[in-house]
Design goal:
By secondary structure, this protein is an all-alpha fold. It contains 8 helices and 2 strands. Among the domains are: about 65-100; about 110-170. The chain is globular. The structure holds zinc ion (ZN).
């Protein structure tokens, strides 16, 4: 199955794994349930499951000891710190679950020339106009493949654009404007990026079609 909206290929494979031998249920129900049990990855057997913890969704505290709280450097520092903590808490599953392939880190696999080229390709082929940057990117970036291009787009390109626009004071962000909208901002046509006199804004106002699923 190919999802034309998010550019991801989704595949649902038939369960072919072994039945769970220690399943307490009878044979019939075993075949139904064992497929969901899988293999334990974490916590690693015999290891403590103690982690630094934290409340999911709580976000970072407003206060920190950085020189410029809230700055790009501040955010990067806290992300890096938490990444190291997560790596420490999870151990090998950190790589098995592909956390090393998530976030801004993905950009380290691309040189600056490739990144610049990709940015201009996305702008020339706006998703909002039904175009796709995938094929031209595959042709122009011989060292990258479909998976790495899609990964770069969602892990690096889109978050960078959102960060740039929120820092510019945009209260409402529509990522479909990422590629095509810049010209329209200057022309004063439908402005989806609105920075009004209210200088404080909250991330709850930041809406993206990717996040809200209203594409
Ligand atoms: Zn900070």
């Amino acid at each position: 199955m190919f999802c034309g909206k998010c550019l991801l290929r989704l595949t649902c494979l038939e369960w072919t794994g072994p039945p769970h031998k220690k399943c307490p249920h009878n044979a019939d129900s075993e075949s139904d349930t064992s497929r969901w049990l899988g293999t334990r990855v974490w916590p690693i057997k015999g290891k403590s499951i103690e982690t630094k913890g934290g409340v999911i969704g709580k976000g970072r505290p407003d206060f920190c000891l950085c020189v410029s709280p809230g700055s790009e450097e501040c955010v990067k520092t806290h992300i890096a710190d938490n990444r190291i903590q997560l790596q420490f808490d999870l151990g090998p599953p950190f790589w098995r679950w592909k956390f090393d392939e998530m976030g801004e880190e993905v950009s380290k696999l691309w040189n600056s020339e490739e990144q610049k080229k990709f940015t201009s390709l996305v702008k020339m082929n706006p998703v909002s106009q039904g175009k796709s940057f995938l094929k031209p990117a595959l042709e122009s970036l011989p060292c990258q493949h479909r998976k790495s291009i899609v990964s770069y787009y969602f892990n690096v390109y889109v978050p960078r654009r959102i960060s740039m626009k929120t820092r510019a004071g945009c209260k409402i962000i529509d990522t479909d404007d990422d590629e095509a909208g810049e010209a329209s901002y200057s022309k004063g046509s439908r402005k989806r990026c609105r920075a009004d006199s209210v200088t404080s804004y909250s991330s709850k106002y930041v809406k993206t079609r990717y996040l809200t699923g209203r594409r």
